[in-house]
Recover the amino acids of this structure.
């Protein structure tokens, strides 16, 4: 079959093309990493493939749109201050691409086949295109603002589940041991006994795509960065779901603590995180 239906033109086609090429390359490098490095800690990995793929995506986008800006994970120094500065700079551009070359680097390094490429386009502050490509399953998730979300030409739709007790929930653990890990552990402890199951697959972007596709009913994670979630957020919204921060406030690209769901169990997730003091925000 055709690997992905490209009915879209312009920006969306450019994003799909870049994600497909990047994904193919990443898959071909699985098990062959040559330079394994770490950033903030031994839990925060980076390889030559992350860096090379980011360069490749950058080149592919800039060939079409030389005056657009690109915010990519491997182009920003680790740490909250560098991210804030990069976001401030990025916001000045009318056309901003947000790129995670490999979301799920730890999985990639271990040969655990759950990782993806994530590419979003923000036009004048508004999320406009979101593409997530899982090379292992050859699944290309595409969302366009106001036009819906698709996987291989078939519309994606969030689940209809209304009961937490029947819900499968995804979450994750970023490397930050100070704020993110304790908050996510507290959330896990609160929510696990009340739902059908919890999965922490190690790719925020793919978890968001799975919310969009109705494969999980909700997802939350404290301590994300814009490249982890920008594309996935648009996928969820265009699939009929809801995305806020962990306090229930609207998502924007600087949101670090994210809740995404089918909409129906959203209040349950936000309320539970608040009850467990697991929002990642300091108590007011
Ligand atoms: C990470 C993954 C992981 C999530 C972390 C992210 P990376 O991204 O999405 O699932 O728990 O918060 O940093 O570093 O593999 O691109
Ligand atoms: Ca990383
Ligand atoms: Ca990531
Ligand atoms: Ca990454």
């Amino acid at each position: 079959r055709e690997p992905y239906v490209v009915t879209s033109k312009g920006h969306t086609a450019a994003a799909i093309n870049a994600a497909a090429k990047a994904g193919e390359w990443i898959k071909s490098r699985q098990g062959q990493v040559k330079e394994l490095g770490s950033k903030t800690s031994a839990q925060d990995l980076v390889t030559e493939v992350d860096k090379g793929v980011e360069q490749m995506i950058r080149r592919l986008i800039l060939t079409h749109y030389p005056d657009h800006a690109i915010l990519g994970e491997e182009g920003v120094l680790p740490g909250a201050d560098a991210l804030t500065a990069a976001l401030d700079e990025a916001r000045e551009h009318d056309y901003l691409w947000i790129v995670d070359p490999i979301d799920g680097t730890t999985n990639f390094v271990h040969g655990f086949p759950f990782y993806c490429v994530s590419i979003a386009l923000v036009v004048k502050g508004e999320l406009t295109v979101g593409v997530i490509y899982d090379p292992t399953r050859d699944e290309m998730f595409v969302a366009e603002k106001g036009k819906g979300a698709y996987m291989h030409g078939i519309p994606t739709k969030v689940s209809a589940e209304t009961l937490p007790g029947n819900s499968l929930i995804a979450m994750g653990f970023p490397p930050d041991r100070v704020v993110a890990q304790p908050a996510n552990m507290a959330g896990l402890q609160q929510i696990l006994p009340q739902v059908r199951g919890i999965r922490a697959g190690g790719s925020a972007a793919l978890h968001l795509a799975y919310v969009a596709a109705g494969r999980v009913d909700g997802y939350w994670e404290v301590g994300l960065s814009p490249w982890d979630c920008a594309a996935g957020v648009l996928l969820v919204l265009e699939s009929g779901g809801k995305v806020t921060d962990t306090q229930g406030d609207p998502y924007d690209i600087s949101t670090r603590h994210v809740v995404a769901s089918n909409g129906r169990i959203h209040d349950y997730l936000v309320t539970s995180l608040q009850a467990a003091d697991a929002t990642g925000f300091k108590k007011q």
Q: What stands out?
A: Residues 73, 105 surround calcium ion (ligand 2) (CB under 6 Å). The first strand starts at residue 36 and ends at 38. The chain has two domains: 10-155, 164-275. Residues 10-155 form a domain with the Fructose-1,6-Bisphosphatase; Chain A, domain 1 fold (CATH 3.30.540.10).
